[in-house]
Structure formats: structure tokens, C-alpha cells
Amino acid sequence: MSGRLATEVAIVGGGLVGCSAALHFAHRKVPCVLLEAGRCGSQASGVNFGGVRRQGRALAELPLAERARRMWSRMDRLVGHDCEFRPTGHLRLARDEREMAELERWAKEAARFGIAVELSGAAALRARWPWLGAGLAGGSFCPDDGQANPRLACPLFRRAAAAAGAEIREGERVHAIERGPRGFVLGTEKGLEIEARVLVNAAGAWGSAIAALLGDELPSEAIAPNMAVSEPLPFRIEPGLGTAGPGVYLRQLPSGSVIFGGGRGVVDLARMRCRPLLESTLATLAQVCAIVPELARALVIRSWAGIEGKTPDDLPVIGASAKVRDLWHAFGFSGHGFMLAPAVGAVIVELVLDGHSPTSLKGLEPVRFAEPVPAPG
Ligand SMILES: Cc1cc2nc3c(=O)[nH]c(=O)nc-3n(C[C@H](O)[C@H](O)[C@H](O)COP(=O)(O)OP(=O)(O)OC[C@H]3O[C@@H](n4cnc5c(N)ncnc54)[C@H](O)[C@@H]3O)c2cc1C
Fold first, then answer.
1. Ligand 1: distance of its center to the CA of 43 in Å?
2. Cα torsion for 347, 224, 132, 256, to the nearest 10°?
3. Which atom of ligand 1 is least distant from the CA of 223?
4. Which of 48, 275, 307 to mutate to test the pocket of ligand 1 (most atoms within 8 A of CB)?
């Protein structure tokens, strides 16, 4: 839609990160307009695996993940629905002694953040979860981790944000951003112009492109994690599962279907489209069946992929731009931003409005990619 709007905050991107930021700005009564190219939640936030886990995360993400985990328990109060969040626990599996050592190392480090996991060797693992295959070296169980429904979460955040007063404009792809007298002037492909004092870049895999429109060069590549789902099965895999090294992850829905992911599909970033690859699905299936042999008899009924921004250090870019005043970034979640997103929106709003947040972003801020200042002389 063409026309001109003036607001305090413009948010580019209506994934879970952008919708969470819009909700938290609206709670603070700050006028904000969110611009989404398609429908809110139509990209990574709506098609992901739905894992809500702290286990296995980089330590720099743990303060944010701890806060997000508390929020997932309170979704009813935040967005009027529990987003089907279930604290089923998360079981991380080691396929050899090297992966087992990695589980032990992480357990020690996470304890400093108050996260307790239960380590088991091969025999104890199969005694507790008899549907696991032979050949695993051990595992680490984090009882407070869980799973949620990605198809519900983002639309619910969008609805709550709009009800609290945020203006949500779907079908508006931003293609130009300039500095204006009051901050920023954004232009969409349909001719809408938005003037805003503050700009939040929550454009997911397109975050680097949005930053580049303002001369802020931040590295990220687009990837397409590959997913598939089985027919409903009678047996129960209670926790979410994942391998310690690069590999596969799976979870069973209350309906009985098993969702599994691993490998990559194909991305067309300009057209905002992606597709799964049969080779990736088959390679993942082989690994999944080694972990849960009963799955060898299951029919796969659908596969898909989603577009995700991945940074060189696999950590998101969250915080103030190192180059452009009043520009805030929150993108590049590198395959694990669904769990973090509710807290990311809250922290961005605290930083913009209060200048500080109780949640540390150390190691995640954009400044880590700023060019080093050459030494004098
Ligand atoms: C298949 C898959 C499985 C995953 N599994 C998990 C998991 O189990 N647990 C976990 O924590 N994370 C997981 N992730 C990662 C997680 O989904 C993402 O990190 C998270 O959803 C990112 O949210 P976002 O809001 O930053 O991005 P997105 O949801 O991609 O939202 C960005 C939005 O910006 C919009 N946009 C882009 N450019 C423009 C523009 N120029 N103008 C207007 N709008 C624009 C896009 O249309 C998009 O809707 C997975 C990701 C994928 C793809």
C-alpha cells in the first residue's frame, strides 16, 4: 500500500524476533510499525523444528536462553496461549568417545550458569530410554528443556503485538532505507514510506542486506536446514533428541508424528524461497534410524526447508549497530533463534528505551564484526 507514515520505531521483519520486539515496544506504549515482506511467521520462525533447548548452546547465548526459557513457561500470560510449549527435556547423544567428551565439557561449563544436566553412559542410557539403538557412547539429559509449536508462536506474538497497539503491515517488502531529518526513511516495494527515529533490523536471513542499505556491512550467509515428518506412530519418544556433533535432531509430537532434521536444502534468497533436498532427507533418515531403530518402519509423509541466516561464528548479531546511530540489529541466529526470540525482543526494547538490559549480550553484539581500527603510525 502506498502512503506515508511517521512513527517512533520501525521494525523490518515479522518473524518471531520482530513480532516479539513489536509486542514489547507496544507494552511500553511506544509507537511502532512492523514491516513484513510476506506474512508474519512465514519464514524460519514458522517452519522450524520447534526445539526450545538450552543444552548444547554456546556459552555467550546462555544468559539470553535462560531468560527465554522462563518466558516459554509464561506464554499464556504473554500472548494468551501456551504455544504448545512442553517441558519434555532434551537428550543430547554422543555417538563416540569424542562426542561424549564434548557433552562432559559442556555440562561443566553450563553448571556455572546454573544449568544442570544428567550425564549417562551407554548402558544407563538404554536402560532409561529402551527405544534407543545400540552403538551410542552416552548422553546428556537436560530435564527443563522442551519443545513448542512454531506454527503457532509467531502468529500469536503478532496478534498480541497488534492488540497491544503495534501497527503490523504485512506484504510490505522494504527495498530502500535512508537517513532522514528524524532518523530513518524506509521505502517499500509497494510505495509505502515510513519515517522512524529508531530502526530495528529483524530481517532474519535478509538481515545483512538490510544493514548494507545503510552501509553497515555484517557477514551472514543464507542456509536452508532440511526437515521431514513421519506418519503418526504409536510409541513414545518423550524428550527432544539431538546429536552432539553435527548430525540430526528429532522429536515426537503428541499426535504421534516424528519430526526430524539434518542436512540442508536449497535457498533462493532474492525470491525468498527454498526447498528440501531428497539426498539430505535420506542421509538424515539413515542417521535417525541408527538412533531410534523403530523409525525404520515409519513412512515419511512430508519434507520441507526454511531459510536461516548463519554468521561466521554461528552466533546471532544482537545489539546496537557499531556504525549507524539508532540502528539495532537482531538477526543471523544460525539455526537456533526460535527458542531465544521471545527474550531477544524484550532485550532490544530495554536497550533502546532504557539504555541497558539485565540480560548480557556479551559476545553477540555487532561490534565483534567491526573492522579493527589501524594502530597509529
Ligand atoms: C528448518 C529450521 C529448523 C530450525 N529449528 C530450530 C529449533 O529447533 N530451535 C531454535 O531455537 N531455532 C531453530 N531454527 C532457527 C529459528 O527458526 C530462527 O533462528 C528464528 O526463527 C529466526 O527468527 P527471525 O525472526 O530472526 O527470522 P525469520 O522468521 O526468518 O523472520 C524474518 C522476517 O523478515 C522478513 N523480511 C526479510 N527481508 C525483508 C524486507 N526487506 N522487508 C520486509 N520484511 C523482510 C522475512 O519475510 C521474514 O518473515 C530453525 C530454523 C530452520 C529454518
1. 5
2. 80
3. 53
4. 48
Structural domains in the chain plus CATH codes: 3-48+151-220+312-369 (3.50.50.60), 90-143 (no CATH), 225-305 (3.30.9.10)
Residues 6+ apart with CB under 8 A from 35: 10, 11, 12, 13, 14, 169, 172, 173, 174, 186, 188, 192, 194
pLDDT in tens, 246-269: 889 999 999 999 999 999 999 999
Quick: pLDDT tens for 158-206: 999 999 999 999 999 999 999 988 899 999 999 999 999 999 999 999 9
Could you count the other beta carbons within 10 Å of the beta carbon of residue 349?
Answer: 25
Taking CA atoms only, the protein residue closest to ligand 1 atom 19 is 337
* CA gap 300, 297 in Å, rounded: 10
Handedness of CA 166, 317, 212, 154 (dihedral sign): negative
Q: Give the list of residues 6+ apart from residue 163 with CB closer than 8 angstroms, or none.
A: none
Closest by CA position to 157, among listed 16, 11, 28, 12: 16
- Residue 211: Cβ within 10 Å count: 26
Quote the ligand 1 centre to 278 CA distance (angstroms). Answer: 22
**Residue 295 CA, ligand 1 centroid: distance in Å:** 29
Q: How far is CA 263 from CA 95, 173, 220, 222, 322, in A?
A: 17, 29, 18, 14, 33
Exposed/middle/buried for residue 142 (C-beta within 10 Å: 0-12, 13-18, 19+): buried
Atom of ligand 1 nearest to the CA of 188: 42
Q: The pTM is what?
A: 0.97
